[in-house]
Amino acid sequence: MLDKALEWISRTLLALAALLAFALCFVVVADVSGRVLFNRPVKGTPEIVSYSIVVICYLQAAFAIRSGGMINTDAFTAHLPLRVQSLLAALGALLGVALFSLICWGGIDGAAHAWRSGEFEGEGALRIPAWPARFSIVGGTALAALSYFLLMLRNLDAVRKGAPPATAATSH
Q1: DSSP state at residue 25
Q2: Torsion angles phi and psi, residue 128, rounded to 5
Q3: pLDDT of residue 35
Q4: What domain count does the chain have?
C-alpha cells in the first residue's frame, strides 16, 4: 500500500514539475522577446528561473529513483554473482537513503525559518517567497529517501532469493 501511494505521489509531483517547466518556458520566451523587441525584459526572471529549477529538480527526484532513472553503473558488478550484485545494489540504495535523509534533515530548519520569517529572494521589482523552494527540497528529499529505502528492501529480498538486483519500483 505504501508503494502504491508513493507511486501515485511521485507521478503527481512529476506532472507538477513538468507543468512548472512548461510555464517557465513562457516566462523565458517573454523575457527574451521583451528584451530584444521592446528593450524591456520581464522583471524578476532570474529569480523565477533559479527558484523554479530547484523546485522542478526536487519534485521529480522520487520518480527518478522509482523509475530507475538515477545513474547506475554496473560495468564492474555485472560479472559478479547475482547475490553480490543485489547486495551491492542494496548498499547503494542505503547510501541513497542516507544522502537524501541528511539533505532533508538539514533543510527542515531553513524551510521553517523561511516560513516563519517571510524570507524572500530578489530585490526591487519582484520578490519571491523562499519557502516553496525550501519545502520542495525537504519534501522531495524525504520522498527520495523513502523511495531508496523501498528499493533497498527489494534488493535485500533479491539477495535472499539469489535474484538480479532491482533497479526500479516495477522490478520485483
Answers
A1: H
A2: -105, 130
A3: 95
A4: 1
Q: Say if CB 66 and CB 143 are below 8 A apart.
A: no
Cell numbers representing residue 62 in the block: 522520487
Per the rule left: phi > 0, alpha: psi between -120 and 50, beta: everything else, 124 is left
Domain assignment of residue 167, yes or no = no
Burial class (CB in 10 A: 0-12, 13-18, 19+), 65: buried
* Residue linked to cell 525550501: 134
For the cut 50, the answer to whether the pLDDT of residue 171 exceeds it is no
| Residue range of the domain that includes 71 | 2-161
pLDDT at res. 122: 78
- Rounded Cα distance between 172 and 165, Å, is 9
Cell of 67: 523509475
Domain membership flag for residue 169: no
pLDDT for the residue 6: 95
Interval 60-86: pLDDT, tens: 999 999 998 888 778 888 899 999 999
Q: Does 117 reside within a domain? A: yes
* CB neighbour list of residue 97: distance below 8 Å, 6 or more residues apart: 145, 148, 149, 152
